[in-house]
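Box S1 | Example of a co-folding query
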Amino acid sequence: MEKIDKAFTVDFNPYINLSRSHVVSVDLGHSTEGDVNVTVKIRCPCNYSCDYCVSQNIREPLALHSVPRLRAVYDQLDSFAVTFFDCGGSEPTLHPQVRELLELALEFGAAYFPTNNSVSPERWLPRKNLERLVVGAALHPEGEGKVDAFANNLLEIRDGGAHVVVIFVAHPARLSKIKDFDEYFSKLGVEMQPIPFHGYYSGKEYPLSYTEDERKIFEHSLCEGVFPHIWNWAYRLSSDMKIRDFSGIPCIAGFRTIYVDEKQQMRRCLYGLAPLERRHSRSMPCPVRFCGCGLQLDELNTYDDAFWGYWRQLGEGKSRRGDLRLEHEDLYRKNKAKYWAIMERYGKTKQLLADDVKQGKVNFPHVLYEKTNESLLEGLETYSYGNRDVHDILMSRSPGIFFNPSTKNDCLTTPYLDVLPSAKGAGRWLKITLSPAGGGSPGANCTVYLQDEQFSQISRNLLSGETNESNETGALVRYIALPEGLQRLRVVISVWDGSPTYIPNSLKIEQSACSSYANA
Ligand code: SF4
Ligand code: SF4
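Box S1 (continued) | Returned holo structure for iron/sulfur cluster
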């Protein structure tokens, strides 16, 4: 293949704010058309023992690469390659072949290299094409005590010609340090990028459990820093992705991204174990039942927004990145809705994943549709009654039917219903009536709430244990204020203690034209 050795110079600033003061010039070698993201597995021990280590401080045995075989893989890709390294619990600067591997990666394109920055760059820094290298130097707790040595290594890497960014894991116990370290590194002209902590701390799951105030401490730099644009939605969406069975859904792995393991076998991804003879010419359906590879779906992936998109963008003069005009919150909500729409379209939300849960393959709560939207739609009747518009949903034809969740997170949902014109506007109310179930009162152990199309709860605890009110027929009734501007909604019934419950025979949703239901 044509090696990257001829002049193709573009003005290049891969990380917008990282080098606020200067835009550097980079020789990208040739067009980035058809570029590919290569993840090379690298394994060796680590010299740190961070207590939040995602790899649980596992001691990785050393695995040596055959550099000629790795070169053959790059040759076969015949494309501008952006290389990432999958390090597991390793510190890659301790790997005896680190310099060779980096030099090879930079020969064929650009690279992002993660390190704890404890080892002198003299030992590992590649000797050429450094302008195509971005080093993510993580300041871990063990590095904090020797931050000046950390900074010296950083400056040495930068003086060598590579780009540097300091990565800081925003563990809840470290949030108070972000400001000071940010100031320290900005005096050196180096951007610090806090990244969300993934894991458990004080009985809470992160990043799901960051408070609004905690998120504010690091979120702005996530959205504007070295990994612009993806962090603001990708890290939040990762907590929402309750379904990870992407089998049959077209995915860019094997086409735009390639995984190379320690035997220099080309694979689609970390979880797709089958060796790949050659790179796919288009996105192909995912072949495995569980994906732990992040998000690489053809329709929704983090790669289009990844920072190296700038390199491609500058090389090609066009961008595949998402809509920059969207506010962070809007982008997150838009992509969350897109994720669930894809899952619904490919029938994933109807799948019973209980076996996977039992086998420990799925760690996430999931949604079980005991009754599908289609069967609920069959029982949907819409009519007007006085000044109200009514959706009446037949939930169960047989009295005494149980909803028997397989996990406490399973739930029943109705189809989406339009908010009728009469109920739009400020201060409108909606009345929900759950008819009595054949075998007993519904709802004793249920939470019933409304959900909008972005899968956000817009009202909760409509119905919960002792707070239930029932009318003379035994039906349970609740009134809910409708948020202004809401277009569509559905009702979700979940069982908070995981035990079976009677399915109500019907669920009636009345939308009132009056601004107060009391007057309706
Ligand atoms: S430096 Fe990285 S791999 Fe090593 S213990 Fe810390 S988090 Fe784990
Ligand atoms: S496991 Fe994930 S990354 Fe791999 S092919 Fe399937 S969806 Fe794509």
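Residues 9-230 form a domain with the TIM Barrel fold (CATH 3.20.20.70). The pocket of iron/sulfur cluster (ligand 1) is lined by residues 46, 48-50, 53, 55, 57, 89, 91, 116, 140 (CB under 6 Å).
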